[in-house]
Each structure stands twice: as C-alpha cells, then as structure tokens.
Amino acid sequence: MPVQAESVWLGAARKPVRIIMVTSFLGAVAIVLGLILGGLFFGAEFDMKQVLSPTQTPTVLAMLILATIALLSAGIYLSDTRGVIESEPSGFFDIVSLICARLAMMATAGIVLVMFFEVISRYVFSKPTLWANELSLWIAGIVFLLAGLYAMQQRSHIRIFIIYDLFPRWLQKLSDVISVFLIWVFTFLLIWGGYNEAVAKFFRWETFGTAWDPPIPATIKPAILIIVLLVAIQALSNLIADWNKAPEVHLPIDEIDEHEIELIRKNLEG
C-alpha cells in the first residue's frame, strides 16, 4: 500500500521509535540465528515447543521479548504514515486502531512466511513441521479480529446509503447514534455471556490438543472480547469525530479508486 511520508502523529519521536524497532529486530534475529547455529554445530536442542514454554529457556525468552518489542515498535512506527487510500485519523481512538492494523498487516506477512517455510520443509527436504498449520491458524485468528477494528476505523464496513442519504442531517445523526448504541449493546452482551468462559480458558491455559499443542483457545477467546470492545470504542470515536461534519452524498463514482486505476495503467504500459 503506497504511503505518504509525512509524520501523522509521532513527530520528533519517529526517529527514536525507529531505532528501537531496528535494534530489537536485529537482536531477535541474532538470537534466532544463534539458536539455529547452536543446533547445527554444537548439538544444542531447539524446537518450537520451547517457544510455548519460554521461561524454561532464557535465550528463547529473550528472543520473544525482543521480537515483541520489535513488533510493537514497528506497529507504532508504521502507524505514523498514512496510505494513499486511507482516511485521515480524526477520532480520539484512531491511532490505537491504526497501530493494531499495522500489526495485523505484518502478521499477514508472517502467515505467508510460515506457510512458505512449511512448503519448503515438506516438499524439498521431506521434513514437514508439526507447528506451521497451528501457528498460521493462531495468527490468522488475531488478524481476522484486528481487521474488523481497522475496517471500523476506516469506515469501510458495508453500508447501504440509499435511505441514509435522503435523511436530513439531524436524522442522520440519530441513525448514527442508534447504530453505535446497538454496537455497544452487542458488545455488552458478548462480554457478559463470554467473560467467565474466556477467563477460565485463559487461567487454565487451554491448549489446542495437537502435537505442538499451542494455547489457541486460551488466547483467542479473550482476544475476541477485548477486540470487540475496541471496535465498540472505535465506533464511539467515529461518532464523536463525525458529529459536526457536513452531510455526505454517496455516489457510485465514489467507489472508484483513481489511484489504483492509475497504478494498473502504469503496470500495463510498463
């Protein structure tokens, strides 16, 4: 996605965040390479099960901490640029949603890398992994949830404007209030009905029941409640940010992305 280079919100903090991102990423990569080389030349055992119990292996724990710092700082750093087709952040919660969106975008690339590794291991070296499928499912579940948050921030959920555009502005505002109210009702009922189960799964660290046995149920169930709550907060942020905006008229031509058409034209000509 093409981005605009100017800072959106970090300002002078952009450079320090970038330094933290690069430093932690290089540290995590160095540890991973050390673990691989240690297994190849010194007989040090390392497998993906150690990633699920990092406290037993300090090196793996350090790698996970650095990787977490790298991902979070990368999400913050990348949220400071705005894609050409992205709307300008205007609500009080937009930056949080953009950071989560950047994490989801990187996670999508991570799924591709995991599956690529699995294909090479299985069909080139005849050594399929026990963890690639579960890890890709685990990441994809989080990506799916965060995508909903990003779609809410960008106001890109499917909407039907035929009747809405005919309303006077005060009635459009009333419709928006009702929509946000219903989102919060759904969020309340979802948390009220699923909280006990989510807490139980998390504290007993419920696992997936496979050979690698990752704690997918223990993490995805609480993540559903947390991210749905974030979506509700983002909906409220949108309502407040859009309250004093002039009425919008939605036309079929608005769905045409001139920037994407221009890129396609250049690719065809080049």
Q: Can you walk through the features of this model?
A:
The protein has helices at 14-41, 49-52, 58-78, 94-123, 132-154, 169-203, 216-242, 258-269; strands spanning 3-4, 82-83. The radius of gyration is 22 Å and the shape is globular. With 270 residues, it is mainly α. Helix 3 (58-78) packs across helix 4 (94-123), helix 4 packs antiparallel against helix 5 (132-154) and helix 5 (132-154) packs parallel to helix 7. The protein has a two-stranded antiparallel ribbon with strand order 1-2. It contains eight helices and two strands. The model has no long low-confidence stretch (mean pLDDT 90).
Summarize the structure.
The protein has 270 residues and is an all-alpha fold.
Shape: globular
Number of helices: 8
Taking all Cα atoms into account, the compactness measure Rg is 22 Å
H and E order? EHHHEHHHHH
Major β-sheet strand ordering: 1-2
Q: Which secondary-structure class do the elements indicate?
A: mainly alpha
Largest sheet: 2 strands, antiparallel
User: Count the strands?
Assistant: 2
Roughly what is the average pLDDT, rounded to an integer? 90
Helical proportion? 55-70%
Distance between the termini: 19 Å
What ranges have pLDDT less than 50 throughout 5 or more consecutive residues?
none
Strand percentage lies at under 5%
